Amino acid sequence: MAPIGFDYGWNTHVGENFFANMDLIVLDVCEVRIGENCMFGPRVSLLTATHPIASGPRAELLESGQPITIGSNVWLGGHVVVNPGVTIGDHTVIGSGSVVTRDIPSNVVAAGNPCRVIREITDEEIRHWERLAEEYRAAAR
């Protein structure tokens, strides 16, 4: 959903069945890879750009970047910030307002600032949501 902003645009690669709510920001100084079936809440920021810690070189506007990789079937809640160099695994949920400063594995719920794994997603939980989805689809027929 508009608006959406890119630093370059050509360094961002998105899989099929992707949805981003309004105000997505992608600073793609280097590669951003987003898997299939991903959902982003409003105001998600993917920030590959980084600058020198030393103020002298930073004042010269030096910039570099580290790639971001987001697996398939990932849901990023509203206002999530993903920092340079981060990989988020498949089937993972990142809670709203999180600042992701390091890699997050597959099949977990993670949240916070800095973002940390809260728990694994269980098979029982998956079956529960699949049953609800089937009931919803049956009622819609």
Automatic annotation (TrEMBL):
User: One Pfam family from the UniProt entry?
Assistant: Hexapep_2
Q: Which SUPFAM superfamilies match?
A: Trimeric LpxA-like enzymes
Q: Cite the InterPro entries for this sequence.
A: Hexapep, Hexapep_transf_CS, LacA-like, Trimer_LpxA-like_sf
The family annotation for this protein states:
Belongs to the transferase hexapeptide repeat family.
Annotated keywords: Acyltransferase, Repeat, Transferase
- Domain of life from the UniProt record: Bacteria
| Native organism | Flaviflexus equikiangi
* Keyword Transferase (UniProt): yes
> What's the Enzyme Commission number for this chain?
2.3.1.-
Q: What is the lineage of its organism?
A: Bacteria, Bacillati, Actinomycetota, Actinomycetes, Actinomycetales
The protein's name: Acetyltransferase
